[in-house]
Amino acid sequence: MSKQFDVVVIGAGPGGYIAAIRAAQLGFSVACVDDWKNEKGGPAPGGTCTNVGCIPSKALLQSSEHFEHAGHAFKEHGIDVAGLSLNLEQMIKRKAGVVKQNNDGILYLFKKNKVTFFHGLASFTGAATAEGYPLTISAPANESISAKQIIIATGSNARALPGADFDEKLILSNTGALDIPEVPKKLGVIGAGVIGLEMGSVWRRLGAEVTVLEGLPTFLGAVDEQIAKEANKMFTKQGLSINLGCKINKVTKGDNNVTVEYDNAKGEANTAVFDKLIVSIGRTPNTNGLGADKVGLALDERGFVAVDHDCKTNLPGVWAIGDVVRGPMLAHKAEEEGVAVAERMAGQHGHTNFNTIPWVIYTSPEIAWVGKTEQTLKAEGVAYKAGTFPFLANGRARALGDTSGMVKFLADANTDEILGVHIIGPMASELISEAVVAMEFKASAEDIARICHAHPSLSEATKEAALAIDKRTLNF
């Protein structure tokens, strides 16, 4: 006899575990099923984000940045470091510890909020009955459960190059890129997106010669063009070799290296040999083992679970959120959808505003943005005003020793409503939150310009960029 719940959440990534907790807070009996395993075979909730994505990559980014600062920047601060050496094993161990803390934290939150957790792979077994949708859970849980409300939050998988499957030893996805046992002399990265740039930055700081091969003719096409050009210049200066407009023709694994044959932007044939190759060309929705065909769950032409604006699927009572549905593949987008769906199930009005979802690339300098880019506004024929302010003129940035980058505001030329904010520079990931709040409340650039910001702080650059909309900066 199956165990019955009001709600079953399939997947315990950022979208799934947050959805489960919110549903429990609203009074539903909730189960969450997830099959991620740690090194000992135990449960490791948190999905790609916690286990092989957001969290471990930030741990390595921080560690590698410390290493680079100790080797290059500390001397300017009057700190002399003698005999600097890299203990990569300890760095990887620390990263694993950070991951485990997050895994354990989610399990604690389930217990605190009375969410029943099952460790295994959940699959639909057939159409809904009077008791709800029947599901089986694989080992180690080996359970049968049912619920009238199902939230699918199964995430995504790394996309492989045709003919170059991941072995996580020579050809690496984001998973293998986090666990390279020794710093490669030559590292290839296919794809100059978020993962490629972040992982490329980590291993460059630790001593690898990094070559990035990007298929598109433009660098960071989704980023504001002015910011992207600044980023390209800075990353190149740091030592990343960024090659745009590349067509990958063949990838061949040797015993201890990988050979990549490609055409450059001019159509010229090139061959490069790397010790390791990271492939970061996007991600695909994960519906493996879900049993979509057994229940008649509709998928779209790209394999995503088809949903409407409210995250409803074609099946009554079945919802889907996060990477497995349309929209940006961002952990915080999944969280927002998870909360919204739980509240909709309770008869409330869940809210997710795609226009104010922030984006961040955790390189150094960081890149963060929200809203429209300048090139998008031009293409849409929107009359706008732009204002920028460089961190070079910010006192706190000078004190930090990191004056790279700028803050850029875009506002409606007639109403002054903020249409987009773009930041490249120190702590951009934190600074962007003010812009998100402002845009959610439909603030004007003038509103930000007239708000008192602490001095000295990096946030003053945000105020100054808002002032620059009307050409009245005070410190530049």
Automatic annotation (TrEMBL):
Broad enzyme group: oxidoreductase
InterPro entries, A to Z: Class-I_Pyr_Nuc-Dis_Oxidored, FAD/NAD-bd_sf, FAD/NAD-binding_dom, FAD/NAD-linked_Rdtase_dimer_sf, Lipoamide_DH, Pyr_nuc-diS_OxRdtase, Pyr_nucl-diS_OxRdtase_dimer
GO biological process: 2-oxoglutarate metabolic process
Active site (record annotation): H455
One Pfam family of this chain: Pyr_redox_2
Cysteines joined through disulfide linkages: C49-C54
EC number from the UniProt entry: 1.8.1.4
Gene3D superfamilies: 3.30.390.30, FAD/NAD(P)-binding domain (3.50.50.60)
FAD/NAD(P)-binding domain: residues covered: 5-338
Residues given in the record as FAD binding sites: K58, T154, G155, S156, D323, M329, L330, A331, H332
Residue sites binding NAD(+) per the record: G191, A192, G193, V194, I195, G196, L197, E198, E214, G282
GO-annotated cellular components: cytoplasm
PANTHER family, sorted: DIHYDROLIPOYL DEHYDROGENASE, DISULFIDE OXIDOREDUCTASE
Similarity field: Belongs to the class-I pyridine nucleotide-disulfide oxidoreductase family.
Name the record gives this protein: Dihydrolipoyl dehydrogenase
Organism: Duganella callida
